[in-house]
Each structure stands twice: as C-alpha cells, then as structure tokens.
Amino acid sequence: xxxxxxxxxxxxxxxxxxxxxxxxxxxxxxxxxxxxxxxxxxxxxxxxxxxxxxxxxxxxxxxxxxxxxxxxxxxxxxxxxxxxxxxxxxxxxxxxxxxxxxxxxxxxxxxxxxxxxxxxxxxxxxxxxxxxxxxxxxxxxxxxxxxxxxxxxxxxxxxxxxxxxxxxxxxxxxxxxxxxxxxxxxxxxxxxxxxxxxxxxxxxxxxxxxxxxxxxxxxxxxxxxxxxxxxxxxxxxxxxxxxxxxxxxxxxxxxxxxxxxxxxxxxxxxxxxxxxxxxxxxxxxxxxxxxxxxxxxxxxxxxxxxxxxxxxxxxxxxxxxxxxxxxxxxxxxxxxxxxxxxxxxxxxxxxxxxxxxxxxxxxxxxxxxxxxxxxxxxxxxxxxxxxxx
Length: 389
Ligand SMILES: Cc1cc2nc3c(=O)[nH]c(=O)nc-3n(C[C@H](O)[C@H](O)[C@H](O)COP(=O)(O)OP(=O)(O)OC[C@H]3O[C@@H](n4cnc5c(N)ncnc54)[C@H](O)[C@@H]3O)c2cc1C
Description:
By secondary structure, the chain is α+β, with helices and mostly antiparallel strands. The chain is 31% helix and 26% strand. Strands 1, 2, 10, 11, 12, 13, 19 and 20 form an eight-stranded mixed beta sheet that branches. Strands 7-8-4-15-16-17-14-18 form an eight-stranded mixed beta sheet, sandwiched between helices.
C-alpha cells in the first residue's frame, strides 16, 4: 500500500522523538517529555495490538525491595548503587501517586511482607533479620526521605513475626513488614498514561514493529512493518526484555515471569503484597482471590525466553508453594482461573541502562523486575540525557 500525501505529512512526517515500546518506560517518557514541552511531536511505536511485554502482565506490586533482596543487592553491587536504585524506585512510586488518583489505578497501600522459612532451609539466615532491619532503616530513611514523626524517621521495615499464625501461613518462621508498599492494577495505570499522553497529542501506533533503524546526521530513519519509513530527530528504545533484538550489544537478557490467579477463596486471611526467597516468589490478594507468581529460579535456563506461554514446571512449583506455604494446612485446593506470563529484562546488575547507543539513538531498558516503580524516574533521566527541550 503506497502512502498518501496526507499520511506523508502527518503519520510519516519527521518527529521530534520516536519511542519504541508502549510499556511503562515508553509511556512515562512521553508523559514527562510533554509536560516539559507540550509542543514536542512524539510518536510511540508498539509492536503489539496492546502493549505486549511486562507492563500489563505483572503482579502490580508498588514495592521498592524486601529485606533479603536489598541485603543481596548490597553484596552484588555495593551499598551506594543499591541506595541509588532503591531511591529511583521509591521516588517513582511517589510520582505515580502524585499524577494519578488511587481510584483510577486501584491503588491500595496495604503494606508488604517478606516471609522466611528459617535458617536451615534457605540462603537467608533469619538470626540476622533484626540487624538487617536496623541497618536498612538507618541507611534508607534519610536517602528516601520517608515519613517522620516528632522529627524522627519512622521505621520502614519492622519484624512482624508474631503475625504469622494470624495470616495462616505454613512453615514460615519469620516475617518482615514494610508499611510503605502498595498494590495497583497495572493495566489501568498503562491505560491512564495512554489517555494522558494521547490527550496531549502523542501519537501511539500499535501493531507497528521496529525492524531496524539507521542513525544519520539529521536524526534516525526507522524501518517498521508499515509501508514507509518513519523519520525522527531522536529515538528512544524502551523495549526492556526485548532490547537485545534491536541493540545486540546491551547486557539485557529476557526473563519470563509466570503468574496465576485463583478463584475467590472464602476467608482469605491476608491482604497486601508478599515476597519470598529474595523476591523470586511473590503473591498478593486481588479482592479475595490469590495472585501468585515467580519461581523463575526453579528453572532458570528455560525461563530465559521471549515466549509468553506458561510452563508446566513453573506452574506446578507455584501450585505446590500455594498449598504448602500460603494457604492454611488442610485447605481445599482452589481452582486456577487464569495463568499468564510476561517478559522482564535482567542483566548482571539490577541498575537500569539509560544511555546513548549511537548518534540520536538512546535506550532506557533493563528494569530488573521493578519497572512499575522505577519507570517514572528512568523516564526523567532519559529525557535529561536526550536534552529534550
Ligand atoms: C510476571 C511479572 C511480574 C512483575 N511484577 C512486578 C511488580 O509487582 N512490580 C514491579 O515494579 N514490576 C514488576 N514486574 C516488572 C515490570 O512489569 C517491568 O519492569 C515493566 O513493566 C517494564 O516496563 P518497560 O516499559 O520497560 O517494558 P515492557 O512493559 O516490556 O514494554 C516494552 C514494550 O516494547 C514492545 N516492543 C518490543 N520490541 C519491539 C519492537 N521491535 N518494536 C515495537 N515495539 C516493541 C513490547 O511489545 C512491549 O510492549 C513484573 C514483571 C512480570 C513479567
């Protein structure tokens, strides 16, 4: 199909910025850029009919790191890099709440817990839990600027082990609580962002896959499955787990995350977000249903995939975890109503990659499984890097 003169002067006219990927990072970048300069001509290109990565397929936790996860991150990348990443997540969560009303995105701040089986069964030594809580509260509060009372920071994490029986868990010996965690409906957040940016003139082209691009002195020529190339002054790749397909030099590997949701469970005993095994397992209530996901570490090799199927191996591990740890002993096994997966972007460390790749070509990728929280700040950093005015 040859394009018309009208299409040439609109859809295919040169843009100020083309964003590849309509997930949280792409959308927040468009949102923040248009706040800065409403005259910018921005197009988002998305290969799916709806966003098809992780942003509408995750667990909807508004979290910034559990105790064991952050202690592991200190070992992996050092205290400074851990603090920097956690600050980006925490500030991102504040930005979401500044921009959108809780009702619009089903936001509830019911807090988050981390569950521990006990020293013998896992890598984390629970005898160190109280020391770790004290250490993290001390270093995080002044950096994150969390709420204060009488001039003193309130603790972020507390030891909540005495609540285990009330919550009905099995085989759990310790519990850490973080009252600053919340949960939301991630697809409602995507749609709210879409509505906000489209209302300001941002064009979103769905079913448009970027096949290749060529950087030149005046900008970038982008080849897609459409009938004419798209010209832009600058391009930002926000394809997270799929980033290597367009920019092979990046340290990003796809990591599939699998999830399921049960039928309603009468007398579900808990509310809020729950983490286990350094964040590899996560669950929350969705009304009185259970949403459970993770267990990627039960089959690392096969979960390093772009496939959006679910696997029997992981789904079975999740079902066992539900019956042996989450639901009270003797519970009837609930029916699983929905199973799905999404693609995360991981790498050697958990810091996002926000960098210039070629003249006029930039990327903001590798959200390391925390993109709900971190995306607004990644977007702001990408905009500064591109010197968008
Ligand atoms: C099961 C699961 C649970 C999770 N739980 C949480 C959680 O509770 N809290 C949290 O903070 N984070 C969570 N995450 C991670 C979070 O969802 C991601 O970090 C975040 O959505 C990444 O956003 P993004 O915009 O970088 O990428 P994506 O949302 O993956 O968006 C990238 C987009 O690029 C598109 N694309 C790819 N290639 C092309 C191309 N060539 N041309 C055009 N378009 C292209 C894709 O279709 C996709 O829509 C979870 C992820 C999964 C999978």
